[in-house]
Design goal:
mainly beta; 186 residues; ten-stranded antiparallel sheet; 1 helix; elongated
């Protein structure tokens, strides 16, 4: 399932840069990108539940079709699918003082048996990390994540209120990916 998701996300990633949206949202920052393209099925292995598709740029990707997909029998070489991909990152500063943590939630919704093949997969990951050190001049922070590991991040100039952030504050990063595929009937 995730292999399909990541493969198609990689195919769509070239379209994302022109569609990116950056917005200041209260005490945080939201960046979102949307892409859409048509892929063509080049091979189907019903038994192994694998479908190979080709992007408009000619990239071939083999997709592991999840067991929830009930209409694989309708998919054939030459079939076309409309693929829509959303990627969003939200960053917020929290004064909660909670311990660093991580969460992940995924949902899959596939077309009902006999309907046009397609589905939607949404994956949301949230990480809370503590700010350990801040370099206001270089606009960098060192964070400690839920596993105790530390990592250094550069803070973009577009993030307002950076000077109000202090060591000990919690940063919440929420990363969302959504992929929708629908077979285009000919």
């Amino acid at each position: 399932m995730k292999a399909m998701y990541l493969a198609l996300a990689a195919m769509c990633s070239a379209l994302i840069a022109p569609a990116a949206v950056l917005a200041q949202v209260g005490p945080g920052l939201l960046e979102a990108a949307v892409a859409e393209e048509i892929v063509v099925v080049r091979a189907v292995d019903q038994e192994a539940r694998k479908v190979t598709v080709e992007s408009p740029a000619g990239a071939l990707v083999t997709i592991n079709v999840p067991p929830q997909s009930q209409n694989l029998d309708q998919v054939h070489p030459g079939a076309r699918f409309r693929v829509r991909y959303l990627q969003a990152v939200a960053l917020f500063v929290s004064k909660s003082g909670d311990l660093p943590s991580a969460q992940e939630v995924s949902t899959i919704q596939m077309a009902e048996k006999g309907a046009t093949p397609g589905g939607v997969i949404v994956d949301v990951r949230q990480i809370e990390a503590r700010i350990d050190t801040i370099d206001y001049q270089d606009r960098t922070v060192v964070l400690t994540g839920p596993d105790g590991g530390q990592f250094k991040l550069a803070v973009d100039d577009r993030v307002q209120g950076f000077d109000a952030v202090q060591a000990g504050d919690m940063v919440v990063v929420r990363y969302t990916e959504a992929l929708a595929m629908t077979m285009i009937m000919q």
